[in-house]
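1st attempt posting a full record on here, be nice pls
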Amino acid sequence: MPRSTDSDLLTRFDRELLYLSGIVPPMNEALLILIAFITSIITAVVGMGGGIMLIAFMPGLLPPAAIIPVHAVVQLFSNASRAVFGWSHIHWGFTSAFIAGSIVGGLVAAGITQEINLQYTPLIIAAYILLTVWGPNLQFKKIPRGEFFTIGFFQTGLSMIVGATGPMGQASLLAKGLKRDAIIVTAGFIMVFTHLIKILLFGLLGFSFITYWKIILGMSIGVIIGTFIGTHLRYKIPEKLFREILKWVLTLLAIRMIVITFI
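the predicted structure (as tokens):
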């Protein structure tokens, strides 16, 4: 028994040394690239879920401090490719207010990010996933003033902490009565600015993106290819059934994140 314990401690110590050196184990790299590819297909098909699913897998495969910054870069490419592949479907009327709100929200969040214990980031992400999947769906009879400025503020601010907040903007786009393509592509376009602002702020806070360039490059290529495939599969999968399956997959991932936090 003592020998097993010592071995476990050595394994954990070695892993931490690799993390501190910016080295991601090859098995982790391959798994993250595959997950990025699959989750990008999911997002391109149903418009949501891929970003949350990706970040749900990342704890345990990357060091806690790298999860949200690396996720931001990968999702920037995922959302940008979704916008490029469906450029004609973008609804431009909501973007300027959203961008302004994103800038303010990101700056506010940057001031408190360093005060948060990143060891418990998976718990925050898990709570957000469960709330998004099973929480109440708020509906407004009248569109609130400054709606998309407010959404940009909270979506980008919270994204600095929990990583994946895309469903916030999609809920409001859905309420506008936009068609499926317009919702999916416009949501992707506005999320580009959320992730751009996050990347800039994390860089200013001292995160070294270049340290993780290999895994970022591999995952980014994976999400671009996944988005291309998912865009063509969008109408070949029954949306109702897919969303139901997705809810339970996300729930299981949230439970996994809670469990691994305490292991």
